[in-house]
Amino acid sequence: MDDPEVPEDSKLTRSKQQWAEQGKFLTGHIARPEEERLPPGQHLTVKWPVLDLGRQPDIPRERWKLEVAGMVARPVTLDWAGLMALPQTRLRSDIHCVTSWSRYDNDWQGVLTRDLLAHVEPRDEAAAVMLHGYDGYTTNVLLADFAVPDALIAHGWAGQPLARDHGGPARLVIPHLYFWKSAKWIRKIELIGADKPGFWEVNGYHMRGDPWAEQRYSRDS
Ligand SMILES: Nc1nc2c(c(=O)[nH]1)N[C@H]1C(S)=C(S)[C@@H](COP(=O)(O)O)O[C@H]1N2
Ligand SMILES: [Mo]
Prior knowledge:
By secondary structure, this protein is an alpha+beta fold. The protein contains six helices and eleven strands. It has a domain at 63-213: Oxidoreductase, molybdopterin-binding domain (Sulfite Oxidase, Chain A, domain 2, Alpha-Beta Complex).
């Protein structure tokens, strides 16, 4: 800060900065960006809940493998060293779970799906992706949703190795879709020619799952 008489780190200054960020005491349009950050029907949580099918596979990094197969010119099976040899990226994003909790500012570390795709070279016919977890879980996304610039295979969270209950050693993270699309304990990424439903999608959940359009269930347009 350029004015030396302003204590730059006082408690009040920090609070006021936060109020400004949150649009506190404001009504209407100025607060709008915050409303847009939190999708409709969601509430914020600070704790990070654990949700899965009740099986949490124990895959040590030494035995971990990730197969990238289907409609790609260069199919690969990566071991841990292979994953680490790809470009490593850190980015921050929000989580939106269909069960209505959202969690802001998650610091991820891992390999961008874009960098993985550049490595395997998708064929022109590839339109969608089926994700397979070590627990038998599957979920589907369009290739365009898989390939967004902020989707990644995450192996770190908040500067620590990704915990097993959150899908460690490595999971997918696709921030702009409901979190059920972000497969934990990722085992296989299969590029396919036409979108088809995975586990929750067979069981009444939406094929795409856009939180801002509230695409929760298959009956939601
Ligand atoms: N392999 C696998 N991935 C999964 C699931 C699962 O059961 N198995 N559950 C999904 C659901 S419904 C959610 S909300 C998130 C939860 O991730 P978390 O436990 O890290 O919060 O993981 C998703 N990915
Ligand atoms: Mo979920």
